[in-house]
Amino acid sequence: MGYKLEGSLLEVCDCKVLCPCWIGEDADNGTCQGTVAHHYTSGRIDDVDVSGLTIVMLSFIPGNVLKGGWRVAMFVDERATEAQFQALLSVYKGERGGPVADLGKLIGEVVSVERAPIHFEVADGKGTLKVGSDIYADMEPFRGPTGEPTKLVESIFSTIPGSPAYVAKAGRYRAKNAKLGIDLDLAGHNAIQGHYSFQA
Q1: Of these four, 15, 88, 110, 196, which has the most CB atoms within 10 Å of its CB?
Q2: How far apart are the first and last CA of the chain?
């Protein structure tokens, strides 16, 4: 029993660019209101194939990102079957161990779990995320003198071992959730993109 999940992530929050959370420092505002989306280009949890699906967490982080206590609203791709839905939740609840369980240890409370239409796209370093009417973000990476996207490696948060993260700026970040007390409509704030391979 276990999982193997590979794909892309998009992350956006209300910090300025570049986000201090990436290196374990306190968020710009003292708290952080952020969204993390994992899209699976390929994935299997036990014998359940979750390829092509996306899971999103909208979070209110009360202090330093590494100290935990996050309050989270979770959104699961509405196309997921009941078996896929339950398998994904078991991973993100930490029941399957591995690197996703390490992320789950930072969560203090899950205020809601719901299905939602999720649009996730990464192309040529650009990214777009839309979760129903609750969340919208579009982002584009910073680029160096050669035109290649600016990369972040070996940071304590947001990067994944063996894979760089692409430092980006969100042209727009909109998020609203009454249970979390989040109501944002921002431009020019922090974003990041990356690729991952999680296995347990």
Answers
A1: 88
A2: 9
* Rounded Cα–Cα distance for residues 84 and 127 (Å): 25
Of 136, 159, 157, nearest in space to 12 by CA: 136
Cα Rg of the chain, angstroms: 16
Query: What are 198's two structure tokens?
Result: 């999680």
Q: Which residues share a beta bridge with 120?
A: 129
Contact criterion met (CB below 8 Å) for 60 and 181: yes
Three-state DSSP string of the chain? CCEEEEEEEEEEECCCCCCHHHHCCCCCCCCEEEEEEEEEEEEEECCEECCCCEEEEEEEECCCHHHCCEEEEEEEECCCCHHHHHHHHHHHCCCCCHHHHHHHCCEEEEEEEEEECEEEEEECCEEEEEECCCEEEEEEECECCCCCECEECCCCCCCECCECEEEEEEEEEEEEECCCCEEEEECCEEEEEEEEEEEC
Identify the pLDDT of residue 160: 72
- For 116-150, the pLDDT digits (tens) are 999 999 877 689 999 999 999 999 999 999 999 99
Q: Which residues pair with 107 in a beta bridge?
A: 70
Token pair 């700026």: residue: 169
CB 118 within 8 A of CB 131: yes
